[in-house]
């Protein structure tokens, strides 16, 4: 990176003093990422993604819930036995059969999860706080007795009663959980709320390593995760491309580059492979990258505006906060209505072609004329086709559903 790349106002404030000495990325692409509607990974695909994440320096991977299906069990076990450097985690409900499946899948650790907010307890679990506490403690003890390290996780942690959250986690810590995973399950936190809330948590919790799992329903997952790290949380959760349920999770590439660029913090992740990883997960998951997705989106290092193109040709940092080559990308100039002279002259020069200023001006005028009179029919058709394909991709069709139901002896509606 350029020497002055990391200089920004954040580094001049006391806010980063709380950063832990070591941040370890907990990668969730193979578990929560796969829970994106319509997405599934084969055994070979999980292995391919896991090996690349491991090669890039990811420290912890939750690779699935082994009890879900025979194929899921097979995939989790295959990753666990691949000899990767990362800690391999299998997720489990507070159910002994789930934990048994993790043991049989040879994972290093299990993340045992249960909901803890009154909202979830009343409408989903239909359990009392006392019952949740009881089965959570029993599950942590059971997993530890069967040779697994334990991370204890609660769904909807941030909307739960703080005193109950503390009671529950402290009891599970005593029962053998080595890590407390706190979740913003529906993405309702803000960075300032996160700082306040974690302050309250730290006052109430017994000593335990903290981890944060954030969702992106209101577009705050990366910001909230960075706020958590600022407060000393050592283990932030991510998914590649931010995939996951509903609006997804904290984006791996955005969190890593946020730490690297904004905080001048070396994450230990090989960032030169970020774009390669992103495009691989895009293809395997079938979830197209948003055009304007930060870091890895197709427009992240593309310029059309003449002013921007001129600036970035003179100095990268004028309109790009990082060097695109650092993450395995190249800059692109898009020629259209807003094109100026600088990128046209640059393109001609790189092709070894000399042109007079008058010729460059004529080319620019021709580009603008062509762009402003291009019909949008093809564009509209593409959007329509994409929507139709996406609707078809998201799981099985209604017709397929009723065919399966009929095979099971359930007659479809007339």
Description:
With 414 residues, the chain is an alpha/beta fold. The chain has 3 domains: 17-285, Aldolase class I (TIM Barrel, Alpha-Beta Barrel), CATH 3.20.20.70; 302-372, no CATH class; 377-407. It has 15 helices and 10 strands. It has helices spanning 43-56, 70-80, 96-104, 118-125, 129-145, 162-174, 191-204, 221-230, 252-262, 274-285, 306-314, 341-350, 357-372, 377-393, 398-407, and strands spanning 26-27, 60-62, 87-93, 109-115, 149-155, 179-184, 209-214, 235-238, 302-303, 332-333. The strands form 2 sheets. An 8-stranded parallel β-barrel has the order 1-2-3-4-5-6-7-8, surrounded by 6 helices. Helix 7 (191-204) links the parallel strand 6 and strand 7 (209-214). Helix 7 (191-204) packs across helix 8. The protein is globular. The mean pLDDT is 93.
Radius of gyration: 25 Å
Q: How many helices?
A: 15
Strand residues, percent? 5-15%
What structural class results from the helix and strand content? alpha/beta
Number of domains: 3
CATH superfamily name of the largest domain? Aldolase class I
How do the SSEs run, as a string of H and E? EHEHEHEHHEHEHEHEHHEHEHHHH
- Total strand count, please? 10
CATH class of the largest domain: Alpha Beta
In percent, how helical is the residue content?
A: 40-55%
CATH fold name of the largest domain, please? TIM Barrel
Would you tell me the overall average pLDDT?
A: 93
């Amino acid at each position: 990176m350029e020497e002055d790349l990391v200089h920004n106002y954040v580094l001049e404030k006391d806010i980063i003093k709380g950063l832990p000495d070591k941040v370890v990325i907990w990668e969730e692409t193979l578990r929560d990422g796969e829970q994106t509607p319509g997405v599934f990974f084969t055994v070979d695909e999980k292995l391919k993604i896991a090996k690349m994440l491991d090669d890039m320096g990811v420290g912890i991977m939750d690779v699935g819930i082994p009890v879900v299906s025979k194929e899921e069990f097979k995939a989790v076990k295959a990753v666990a036995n691949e000899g990767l450097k990362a800690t391999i985690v299998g997720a489990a409900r507070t159910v002994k059969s789930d934990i048994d499946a993790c043991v049989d899948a040879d994972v290093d650790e299990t993340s045992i999860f249960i909901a803890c907010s009154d909202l979830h307890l009343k409408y989903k679990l239909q359990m009392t706080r006392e019952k949740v506490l009881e089965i959570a403690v029993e599950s942590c003890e059971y997993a530890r007795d069967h040779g697994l390290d334990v991370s204890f996780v609660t769904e909807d942690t941030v909307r739960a009663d703080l005193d109950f959250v503390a009671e529950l986690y402290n009891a599970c810590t005593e029962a053998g959980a080595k890590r407390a995973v706190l979740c913003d399950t529906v993405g309702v936190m803000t960075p300032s709320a996160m700082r306040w809330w974690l302050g309250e948590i730290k006052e109430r919790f017994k000593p335990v390593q903290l981890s944060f799992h954030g969702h992106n329903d209101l577009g705050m997952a990366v910001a909230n995760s960075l706020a958590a790290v600022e407060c000393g949380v050592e283990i932030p959760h991510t998914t590649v491309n931010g995939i996951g349920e509903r609006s997804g999770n904290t984006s791996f590439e955005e969190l890593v580059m946020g730490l690297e660029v904004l905080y001048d913090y070396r994450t230990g992740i090989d960032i030169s492979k970020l774009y390669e990883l992103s495009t691989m997960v895009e293809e395997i998951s079938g979830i197209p990258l948003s055009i304007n997705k930060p870091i890895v989106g197709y427009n992240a290092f593309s310029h059309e505006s003449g002013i921007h193109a001129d600036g970035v040709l003179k100095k990268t940092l004028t309109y790009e906060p990082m060097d695109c080559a650092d993450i395995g990308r190249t800059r692109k100039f898009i020629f259209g209505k807003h094109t100026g002279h600088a990128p046209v002259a640059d393109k001609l020069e790189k092709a070894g072609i000399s042109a007079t200023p008058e010729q460059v001006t004529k080319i620019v005028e021709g580009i603008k004329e062509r762009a402003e009179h291009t019909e949008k029919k093809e564009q509209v058709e593409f959007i329509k086709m994409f929507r139709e394909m996406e609707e078809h991709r998201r799981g099985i069709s209604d017709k397929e559903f009723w065919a399966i139901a009929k095979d099971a002896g359930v007659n479809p509606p007339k």
